């Protein structure tokens, strides 16, 4: 079986091969401004070598996920996993020798750098028996190995730069062949770029980038001007895996496409201007009616026809007639209705418990329940149940959650029960805003400390992915919420 692939043709139309075995030992650097065909080149190389070698693609823009349909690559969504899971996935990739695309387009820059670094470190730290040959392609490498400090924190930059340096400097002994692509050589760390022995240089316009490209290709500075004149999809190639002297290569066709928008011109809509005006007119948003508990005004002109009071008392031995007396109210039903009315008021949970308790007593008396039977502590727990949405008392799982809640401090009871109810129903994890309202705070930091306290005491386990999706599990109940944005 041959180890060479054809990446394109030279100026005479002759095919230009790339020796993959040699590439595994000598690594590759691809440079080209946006629109030069850099991603097209990587796609051509990946498609042609897909049946020859395991491939790992670090894809910050989600351009290469289409390889999964045609060549069976497994797409790993970086935003859906946390740090520990990313490291475990990297170990499995080396063990199973699976070709994968690590899609990072759902993450911010700092999260992309941390996720890619942890994944590369997981590949690098695999046991010796799993050091199989693999092509590791990193697109937009200047993001992961920046030449200077940028918008991200120093810790993340050092972590990412160290992972890229390990890949390019020490990865060969572990079977990892780095292929890095960058828009600008000046923005790529020099110790990372210097480890490549093969080069494919595309169009660039800045003098500093042309000068570095010419140095890498062994060209004189006056010859570097031709780099500026390269057409889209044409690269200057040099290296032991391609050719011993610089040669101009026109990259060949590819089978798969990207998800990027078309760069061609499209006709503008031909609808009349009036229709476009109607299209851009926004309808007013529907608003829920505000709850009001003010008593209805009494019509002073209305005539009250009241029966005359009977001041007589029943005769001796006569039973009083109670047929016209209203029935006694159901105390539990009244308490539930009163709590529901209180929670319907905006900012109810932010009021102090003593104030709420006093308001609760007044409302109960207005409903002819003079003795509701709750003290301050009992009211607090009943109010927390109402905030969380009291579950089915006949459900054994909900009863188990209530028993577990006995270990929770009273002030944390409402957010804990809210999480428990969501987990039992398999609903998305409540967000910080919802938990903060249940707790009665407007501070997101306090909610994070609340979750840390519950987790430290073994009541919950919090799982947060790189994409900010959080799920909370209750180990003692064996349930977990669905992931949702925090």
UniProtKB/TrEMBL annotation:
Molecular-function GO terms, alphabetical: ATP binding
Boundaries of every AAA+ ATPase domain copy: 24-359
Keyword Acetylation among UniProt keywords: no
SMART domains: AAA (SM00382)
SUPFAM superfamilies: P-loop containing nucleoside triphosphate hydrolases
Keyword Nucleotide-binding: yes
Keywords: ATP-binding, Nucleotide-binding
Chain positions covered by the region annotation Disordered: 306-331
Name under which the protein is recorded: ATP-binding protein
Species for this entry: Sphingobium nicotianae
